[in-house]
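worker-03 picked up job from queue 'complexes'. Input manifest follows; two sequence lines, order preserved.
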Amino acid sequence: MNKTENNKAWFLVLPVFVLVAFSAVIPLMTVVNYSVQDIFDQNTAYFVGAEWFREVLRNEDLHDSLIRQFLYSFAVLAIEVPLGICVALVMPTKGKMASLCLILVAIPLLIPWNVVGTIWQVFGRADIGLFGAALNGMGIDYNYSANTGDAWATVLLMDVWHWTPLVALLCYSGLRAIPDAFYQAAEIDRASKWAVFRYIQLPRLKSVLVIGILLRFMDSFMIYTEPFVLTGGGPGNSTTFLSQTLTKMAIGQFDLGPAAAFSLVYFLIVLLVSWLFFTTISHMDKAK
Amino acid sequence: MAEIQLKALAHSYSASPQSPADYAIREMNHVWHQGGAYALLGPSGCGKSTLLNIISGLLQPSDGEILFDGVRVNELSPKERNIAQVFQFPVIYDSMSVYDNLAFPLRNAKMPEAKIHAKVSEVAEILELTPLLKNKAKNLTADEKQKISMGRGLVRDDVSAILFDEPLTVIDPHLKWKLRRKLKQIHEQFNLTMVYVTHDQLEASTFADKIAVMYGGQIVQFGTPRELFEVPNHTFVGYFIGSPGMNLIEVERAEGGVSFDGIHLPLSEKLNLFLADHPSNNIKVGIRPEFVHIWAEPSEDALLCDVTTCEDLGTYKILTMRLGQQNIKARLDEDQPIPNGKAYVSFPQQWLKVYVDEFLLEEEAL
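worker-03 finished. Artifact:
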C-alpha cells in the first residue's frame, strides 16, 4: 500500500498533547523540579541530585507508613471484594424492591470523604456515639482514640461501609448482563448453586471486578481524609498512612524537597502495582 | 428414557387469565412416545418455546399435568426430570476447556472421573470435537459452540429426552445441513426421545418422523410430513407447510356444493351432508398448488382464468392466475408448457379440502 507522507498530520495530536501536558505532565514536572533541588526562596535553589530520594528511601517513618498502607489496602480489598459480590448476589433483580435496594446501597457513595470521617468520629465515640456507647454498654472495651486495634477496626469498617457499595453496584450490573439462558442451561446440566457461581457468575464478573479492584486499590492506597478526621493518624502513628505522612512532611515541616521526592516514589508504587495487576489479568485472558 | 404425556395442559403468563387470548398455551393433550424424533413447528410467538420450557421444567404450567412414563412431574425441577435442553444461542461455560464443558453435567452428578473420560471421549468423537478437547471453549466458532451445547446433553446416557430450541439459528447455512445430519445420526444411535423446535418446515421434515404444528398456542396437527402436506388439518397448516402454501378461498354455501364470485364448486355428497351439520358460515376450500390441474384447452368442469404471472424457480414454475376475485397459484414442472394469457384449471375432488371455522371437514371422521 502506498502511504502519503504529510507531517502536518502531527498537528492532529496537538489537542491531546496540550491536554495531557496541562493535566499531568506539567504538574508532575513541577514535583520533579522540587525533588532534585533544595529550594530556599525564589532566588536561592541548589541542585542536589538524588539526595532527597536517598533520604526518603532510608526514612523509617515512611517505611512504617508504607507497610501500614499495604496492610490497609490489602485488608480493604480482602473485605470489600467478597462482601461486594455477596451483596450483589442477594440484591433483588426485579420490581420496586430492586430500585429501592439500589438507592439504599448507593447512598454511602454520595457522602463526601470528610463527612464520612465526621460521621464515624461521632458514631464511634464511647461517650455519646451510638456505636461506641452500645459496644461499651455490652461490656466491650472499645475506644478508637486509645486502642490501636479499635482504631484500625474503625478505619476499616468506615471504608467498608463507604466503598463496598461501589463493588456491589459494579457486580450487580455485571450479573444483570448474564443472559437467562446460562442459568437455564446450568439448571439443565444439574449444576449446584456453587457451580453456577463458580463457572457462570464469577467468570462473567471478571471484567467488572478488575475495574473494581483497581479502583479500590488506588483509592485505598491514597486514603487521606477519613482517618485524618477520625483519628488524626493516631493513637501514636498507628493509623497514619502514606498520604498523611507526606502531608506532614510537605506542609507541616515544609520539607518540600523530600516530600516531592517521596511523592514521585508514591506515584510510581501506585502505577507499578496497578500495571502489574492489569497485565497479569490480561495475560491470563490471552492464554489458551 | 421416557414417554412424555401432556394432559389438559395450559399455560398463561398472566396471573389471572380472562380470555383464551391470555393463554400462551391453550389446553392440549399430547403424547411424545419414547424414542421418537419429533419436531414442533410454528411461527414465532406461537408458544413453541413456552411448551418446550414446560416440558423441561424451566417453567411451571398454570393448568394441567405433565406425565413422564405416567408419573406426574409438574413439581419436579429439570434436574429431577433428567432432561437435556439445547438453546437457540449456544451456551458454553467460557472459563472451561471443551473437555470440561462436556464433563460438566457428569461432574455435577458426581460420576467417577474414569467413566467421565470414557463418555466425553465417545461423544467428542461423534460430534467431531476430539481435536478441540483441550482448547478453551471461549474462542470457538458458533457451530462448534452449539455442538458443545448438544454434547452436554448427549454425554448423559440416562436422559429422559433431549429438547432442542431452534438450535441451528446462529449456524452458517452450509453447516446447518451437516449438524442436522449429525442429529439424525445421534437419534438413530442413542434411541432417545428428541423434540426439535423450529419455524423452518424443511428443518422439521428432515429431522423428524412426526411433526406437531403449533398455531396460536395450540397443536393444530400432529402427523408425518406427508400427512401435513396431503391432508392439512387446519388452514394454518395448509398455509404454513409447502412452498407456496395452500390456495385458500373463502366460499359460501350453494346448492350441491359451494360457490365464490359466482363460480360454483360441486362437492361430494358426503361432504355436502357434513357441511350441512355445521352452522358456521366461515367456510373455506383449500387446494395445494401441486394438485391444481392446468389445461390449455377447455374441458368438462375446467374453469377459465387469466394468467397473471409466472415465476421460474429453476426446477419448477409457479403460475399465478386470477379466478373471479381470487388469486390461484399452481405449481408446474419445468417441462410443462406455460399457458399464454388464458388457462383452464380444475380442482380434483380428492385434493380439494373443505374447512369450517379453519378446521378440516373430514370425510372419514364422521
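worker-03 released lock.
Chain B touches chain A at residues 53, 56, 58, 77-79, 83-85, 87-89, 91, 93-96, 104-105, 108-109, 135-136, 139, 149, 152-153 (CB under 8 Å).
Chain B has a mean pLDDT of 84.
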